[in-house]
Design a protein that fits this description.
CATH architecture of the largest domain: 3-Layer(aba) Sandwich
Radius of gyration: 24 Å
Oligomer: single chain
Number of strands: 16
Shape: elongated
Low-confidence stretches: 358-364
Largest sheet: 8 strands, mixed
CATH topology of the largest domain: Aminopeptidase
């Protein structure tokens, strides 16, 4: 791993900054303290700052020379509605809010890169530091775009990263094409006719209707879509009934759908609606089908992935530049990649060994998985991620368009 001397020398400062953000988590579109901290840091290094994009987003601009080359680098800032179970000194001070996905680390890595580039950057062009709110379900990327992100800051391409537990520290991973899936939710209300449980023939029981639907939905995955296309239909909630001796008059089903392509998603939404309607009708019931599309699939651009891989190999080495297996999780960086060329990639967060000195429970729960109440970002990644951002910027600005 090729690190930058000044980033290593300032490591303690950025660790303290990261832990301060971790201790003060803010949920989507509530990142006022975090955004102000980011803005003040950027301004202290002479970087032009724009506040309030996508409500609480921040964009910093750093220009050098006279080139028209431009580049966007993105970090997310928001936390999750989780109660933290860690007991170390920088644990969340706000019950029910926690940086359980490492956005505190993402923000700090980009700040470290911004500081280095402002003081030692060797490039000709303009780099935009995009600090985005509300990745965790709020669609902050979409809101920044609606606020004119790409019109006000006309970047040629945009890159984003995420830490990934299980990939060793010091490693990077990326892939061409889909790297994360779309995120979608469904809700079905089955309406029957309530009755005494001892006299079910006098009612229309929605419970067996729901059971038939749940089973039938899986045939969409196994029998309707092409076997080579990837999709997951997960029924995660079934709510019905108030008493054990009553046939309920309605039943509600909820869950999620994940796909790597819009075409497969279109097929699944259509077939789920048909199955819901006709299954209910077969039992004499009715069904209300609601389907909501949250985030589209995150699809990397081939040219930018090829460029990024070269930078990864330069910073981390060929043996530490990995092929990322696409994940069925979702990311609103997808909205950026629908508008601009770019790539989303991973930096290895290790397997939780960095947490053992701080929290003995780490030994019992294993790797520090994302969205886990015991999770903590690996501070060793800060100079690694910052070095990648710096080298990516310098290489991008020096490359031919």
């Amino acid at each position: 791993m090729t690190l930058l001397a000044d980033l290593q020398a300032q490591a303690d400062d950025f660790v303290a900054l990261r832990r301060d953000i971790h201790a003060h988590p803010e949920l989507c579109f509530e990142e006022h303290r975090t955004a102000e901290l980011v803005a003040r840091q950027l301004e202290s290094w002479g970087i032009e700052v724009h506040r309030g994009l996508g409500r609480t987003g921040v964009v910093g601009i750093l220009r050098r020379g006279s080139s028209t080359r431009t580049l966007g680098l993105r970090a997310d800032m928001d936390a999750l509605p989780i109660t933290e179970h860690n007991t170390f000194a920088h644990a969340s001070r706000h019950p029910g809010k926690m940086h359980a996905c490492g956005h505190d680390g993402h923000t700090t890595m980009l700040l470290a890169a911004a500081r280095h580039l402002s003081q030692h950057g060797r490039f000709d062009g303009a780099v935009y530091f995009v600090f985005q709110p509300a990745e965790e379900g709020g669609g902050g990327a979409r809101e920044m775009i609606a606020d004119g992100l790409f019109e006000r800051f006309p970047m040629e391409a945009i890159f984003g990263l995420h830490n990934w537990p299980g990939i060793p520290s010091g490693h990077f991973a990326v892939c061409k094409g889909p790297i994360m899936a779309s995120s979608n939710e469904f809700r079905i209300v089955i309406r029957g006719k309530g009755a005494h449980a001892a006299l079910p023939h006098l009612g229309i029981d929605p419970v067996p209707v729901a059971c038939q639907m749940v089973q039938a939905f899986q045939t969409i995955v196994t029998r309707n879509k092409k076997p080579l296309d990837t999709a997951v239909i997960s029924v995660t909630m079934i709510h019905t009934g108030e008493a054990s001796n009553v046939v309920p008059d309605h039943c509600e089903i909820q869950g999620t759908v994940r796909t790597f392509s819009t075409g497969v998603l279109d097929l699944i939404e259509r077939r789920m609606g048909e199955i819901a309607e006709h299954t209910a009708a077969a039992f004499g019931a009715t069904a209300e089908f609601h389907f909501h599309r949250n985030y589209p699939p995150t699809i990397n651009h081939d040219r930018e992935v090829t460029f990024l891989r070269d930078v990864m190999r330069e910073v981390a080495g060929p043996d530490r530049t990995l092929e990322m297996e696409p994940a069925m999780t979702a990311e609103d960086f997808s909205f950026f990649l629908e508008k601009k060329p770019g790539a989303y990639f991973m930096i290895g967060n290790g397997s939780g060994e960095h947490r053992a000195p701080h929290d003995g429970s780490a030994r019992q729960i294993g790797p520090c998985t994302l969205h886990n109440p015991h999770y903590d970002f690996n501070d060793a990644l800060i100079p690694q991620g910052a070095a990648l951002w710096v080298r990516l910027t310098e290489r991008w600005m020096a490359s031919a368009e």
